[in-house]
Amino acid sequence: MPRKAPKKPAAKRPKNAAHGASRGSASQRGPAPAGRKKIPPSGSGEIRLIPIIVGDEIRSGDHIANKLLAALQKDRHQIQPRDILVIKHKIVSKAEGQAIDLATITPSAESVTWAKQYDLDPRVIELALRESRSVIRRKNGVLITETRHGFLCANSGIDVSNVDGGRHALLLPEDPDRSAQQIHRRLKKQTGIAVPVIITDSFGRPWREGLTEFAIGIAGMKPLRDDRGRTDPHGYKLKASVEAIADELACAAGLVCGKLNRAPACIVRGFQYDPGEGRILELLRPASADLFR
Predict the structure, then answer these.
(1) For the chain, what percentages of helix, strand and coil (3-state, to nearest 5) are there?
(2) Under a CB-based contact definition with an 8 Å cutoff, are residues 267 and 249 in contact?
(3) Could you give the CA distance from residue 183 to residue 63 in angstroms, rounded to a whole number?
(4) What b/e sequence results for 250-263 when a residue is b if at least 16 CB atoms lie within 10 Å of its CB, and e otherwise?
(5) How many CA atoms lie within 13 A of 71 on its CB side?
């Protein structure tokens, strides 16, 4: 059953919260790995994206791993060693009961005033504020917040599309890494294959129009590829090349997963990743190194 909105106020932003370093960050943690000489040739070559079509609606309490395996079997596909599973967060949030009945939300006067000015739903604005750690920008009808996970996005990642026509809003998973780890473990138990899992959401970006996919949870692989210390084919030693592999895979999957084609997940096949525990924290730039906050 959809749960009611949380009553607790938004948490305050912790001072100097370190969310990990991303590509080009001035605060890369630790020196470049020693002993590297040349960049190895790309091991990925051809990559295949296999959309997973889920015909029935995901409901609270469903096991995502079971649903996806059944959908793959129906289309005569199966998980293979070295595959990566990329999942849109909505089905994870639905399965975890993260749907909020908007009828239970009483917006503040501030939310009502802001929403009325830009023809928005004040209940969604109120919910976004409750789910935020801090408000980054509020201008021209756009509310950019930092979620308690550390994500910077519109309306704390709250969504009303593909839910039930606007009666409920969907929150992000409480702990996307934990969600990914649970699916990862269940898939290994069911198939015997330790398939990495990436959970994604669609965010906007500074300076660019349109939405794109971002990784918000990960299990079974490293989210970054660190090429610092290697030399390129011209002999130049790389100093700031830390690549956001998890985000790139999320974007690739976004080409076949969408709101309109009932493909909330896909298999990425042929990409050479580094196995590991992995945490999404590694992709989040600390506020102390962020030049735009």
Answers:
(1) 25, 25, 50
(2) no
(3) 8
(4) bbbbbebbeeeebb
(5) 21
41's CB contacts (< 8 A; 6+ apart) are: none
End-to-end CA distance of the chain: 38
The residue to which tokens 């084919």 are assigned: 233
User: What does residue 22 show for φ and ψ, rounded to 5 degrees?
Assistant: -115, 175
pTM, whole model, 2 decimals?
0.84
Rounded Cα distance between 28 and 164, Å, is: 43
* CA angle, 136 then 17 then 223, to 5°: 95
CA 183 to CA 84: how far, in whole Å?
A: 12
CA distance 244 to 216: 12
How far is the C-alpha of 280 from the C-alpha of 268, rounded, in Å? 19
Answer yes or no: are the C-beta atoms of 279 and 216 closer than 8 Å.
no
Contact (Cβ atoms closer than 8 angstroms) between residue 174 and residue 182 = no
Do residues 190 and 65 lie in contact, with contact meaning Cβ atoms separated by under 8 Å? yes
User: Could you tell me which residues come within 8 angstroms of residue 36 by beta carbon, excluding any fewer than 6 positions away?
Assistant: 229, 230, 231
> Could you report the per-residue pLDDT of 168-197, keeping only the tens digit for each?
999 999 999 999 999 999 999 999 999 999
Ordered by where they begin, the domains of the chain are 43-97+174-288 (3.30.1330.100), 99-171 (3.90.1660.10)
pLDDT in tens, 96-127: 999 999 999 999 999 999 999 999 999 999 99
Q: Say if CB 120 and CB 129 are below 8 A apart.
A: no
Per the CB < 8 A criterion, the answer to whether 90 and 81 are in contact is no
